[in-house]
Amino acid sequence: MNNWRKNFLPADIVAAIFAVTFALNLFLATFAIAQEEKAPEEYELEPITVTAQKRKENVQDVPMGIKAFSDIQIEDADIENILDLTRFAPNVSMKTSFVENIVVIRGICSYHTALSSPAGFYVDDVSYPRNYMHNAELFDIERAEILMGPQGTLYGRNSESGVVNIITRQPNDEFRGKAFAEYGNYNSLRVGANISGPLVPEKLYLGISAQSKTSDGYITNVFNDNDKCAEID
User: Which of 115, 180, 203, 209 meets the CB 3.0–4.6 Å disulfide criterion with 194?
Assistant: First the structure.
């Protein structure tokens, strides 16, 4: 009987443990109630401005199917070219080869070896009419827009399926600069740099952007033992 009684804690220690546990639970309950009563923080998303209809407007006010990508989204998603861009847009893809790059919007595309495409392609409102021009590298870009559906009213012929709009970053009063270098297999090398800023504040600006991409290729021509087939320059 004496050994059995020794296994129990003294009454004052039990009371102390109970008091501490009760106080801790009361504190946690009070903290949880205070957190619930605290007003939630408000976050305001900046509007995305596009020029799909030849004027600046909020993307939510554009009466057409459109997918817009900001410069931050392009950099965060590591989008290097139009082929990468189409992978982030619904109902948009690209059929690409060494001689052509056909943008397919909503399943509408041209046949292989065709010179023109039913998808328009513009960089700073300058038309790129041929298929082989449509997989441009995206560097120092302000915004990319993909318009889905016929756009002949604003963009003319060869825009039956939609339009891809690329808007490059324009220089302003802020000095900006960036440089990068990437190296991969098959001696693939991609380097680029850009710098921009004011020559005369609020009057004259200058921006320079350059990029180079080379690769030895991954195919060997067994006829002449050329291991640089499909090289990129």
Answer: 209
Burial of 213 (0-12, 13-18, 19+ CB in 10 A): middle
Task: Give me the tens of pLDDT residue by residue for the chain, a chain 233 residues long.
Answer: 444 444 445 666 666 676 777 777 776 667 666 555 555 666 676 778 888 888 888 888 888 899 999 999 999 999 999 999 999 999 999 998 877 889 999 999 887 778 888 999 999 999 999 888 999 999 999 999 999 999 998 998 889 999 999 999 999 999 999 999 999 988 899 999 999 999 999 999 999 999 999 998 888 888 888 877 778 88
Count of helices and strands (H, E) across the chain: 5, 14
Closest CA relative to residue 215, chosen from 193, 183, 169:
183
Nearest to 126, CA basis, from 118, 136, 139: 136
Please state the pTM of the whole predicted model: 0.74
Amino acid in position 156: G
